[in-house]
Amino acid sequence: MRPLPFNDDRHLQAHQFLVDEAYLLDAQEYDAWLDTLTDDIRYLMPVRVTTAVGAGFDTSPGMAHFDEDKYSLTRRVARLRTEHAWTEDPPSRLRHYITNVRTFAGEDADHLIVESAELLFRSRGDRNEAALVSCGRRDMLRRCNDRLKLARRTIMVDESVLRMQNLAVFL
Q1: Bridge partners of residue 134, in order along the sequence
Q2: Which of 44, 58, 69, 136 sits in a 20 to 30 Å window from 158, CA-based?
Q3: Residue 82, pLDDT score
Q4: pLDDT value for 52
């Protein structure tokens, strides 16, 4: 399957969606971010494993860091507002860098498939080392009432062992 040209309006709209989403996540405007998700969102981050060449897999079957829907994502956001969200008190400083965006026509005119690379910089407090997470993402965007929304996201981290204290962030 060939990606859409970079000057195709669908690619430009998909790229704009990802940039706007990164802004919302960096600013920790999570209610606005939840509004960019479809009601049937699936947000998945499989556990990566290191295997021999030719093994035929690089994720642990049935295991995921995240395998969430709109309800669970909404609950995570709600928890961040409580005194029980000690992993984010004080809040992290985040920067989502989105690059290598390629857009593909979807199953119909209302769907786009978007591949991107992401580098997340996260700083917490004054004493902890900053953390980086590098990953590839495969998204399905759906046009809903004249705007794009995220319907599916699969996140493939580039490391088998995550070097981050916790995963209280969205990628």
Answers
A1: 119
A2: 69
A3: 77
A4: 58
**Which CATH number does 9-157 carry?**
3.10.450.50
Burial of 36 (0-12, 13-18, 19+ CB in 10 A): middle
Residues 6+ apart with CB under 8 A from 18: 98, 101, 114, 116, 139
Peptide bond into 61 cis (omega under 30): no
Confidence at residue 38, expressed as pLDDT on a 0 to 100 scale: 98
Per-block mean pLDDT, blocks of 10 residues, the chain (171 long)? 96 98 97 98 88 61 86 93 72 94 96 98 80 95 97 92 79 94
Q: Around 71, how many Cα atoms within 13 Å sit in the side-chain half-sphere?
A: 0
Phi then psi for residue 144, to 5 deg, are: -130, 115
Find out whether 169 and 148 touch, Cβ atoms under 8 Å.
Answer: no
Contact 144, 115 (CB under 8 A): no
Any idea where the domains of the chain sit in the sequence?
A: 9-157
